[in-house]
Amino acid sequence: MTFVDFLNLLIAALLLAGIYAVMSVGMTVIYGVMKIVNLAHAGFLMMGAYFALELYDRLHFDPILAALLAFPFFFLVGIAVHWLLVRWLPQSDRPTLQSLLLMFGLWLVLQNFGYLIWGNTDRSILTPRTLSIIELGPITISTLRLVVFVAAVGCMAVLEIALSRTWFGRSVRALIQNRYAGRIVGVDDEKTARLTFGMGIAFAGVAGALLATLYSFDPDFGRPFLLRAFVIIVLGGLESVSGVALGALVLALVETFSILFVPAAYQPAISFALLVVVLVVLPGGIASLWAKRRRLA
Length: 297
Fold this sequence. Notes:
Layout: H1 3-34, H2 41-59, H3 63-84, H4 97-118, E1 133-136, E2 139-142, H5 143-165, H6 167-177, H7 179-184, H8 189-212, H9 222-236, H10 241-258, H11 267-281, H12 285-296
Antiparallel strand pairs: 1-2
Helix pairs in contact: 1-5, 1-6, 1-8, 1-9, 1-10, 2-3, 2-4, 2-8, 2-9, 3-8, 5-6, 5-8, 6-8, 9-10, 9-11, 10-11
């Protein structure tokens, strides 16, 4: 492999890491605040993809604009799902069987709804920028992947600002650190949980819409990305929003450079293997290393 090939793969991995981070952060905040493993995340990724498709086919919206519009739409959907279903779950400091079954059932409902409305045919969103590239000497960059990366980084930046400079962000961070202490100091845990669930579903919808511009999709579209999201949040630490970006980067690097050694069809197996290794060797994720380093400093 030449140095130019290495740079091209590295750039591809960095661009992929951006969308992987947006894809996973919704699961992280929901787990951190509510201790719910949102298996329905895959269903909302799929719905986000079809949301972008419908806006593109029927109203001729640019897919990136459709992804941005997906945020308020799926935020309201998330609020409605929380009010109808999630708020009745018993509160706990760890995932419960009831929450797992509810989210899994919701995923199946969304998936079958997708089959009912759109069928099982693969769909794709093709625009003039789909095959466009930017050439910087010997380095080639996909215009579409660059635009998706910029949109993903923008979403992550907005989330970081919201978590660090608003009352909602302070409430989220307080509940992630200690739910009972947060209540003692006056955090409205029910309202925070409702908004957090809406935000987590909103990020799933945005990520699904962005992924739809890169890959073909069907109603089972979210399943392989759900696995990747699990790998990323375990790598970054189950309750670490900042660790998601690093976890996404690690997985993107592993997947991108693995094509030098194994066929692309084996990438899901690579994700499985990485998940097992992390759970055995570093169950607290990369964030646990940072915490340990701060304690020793």
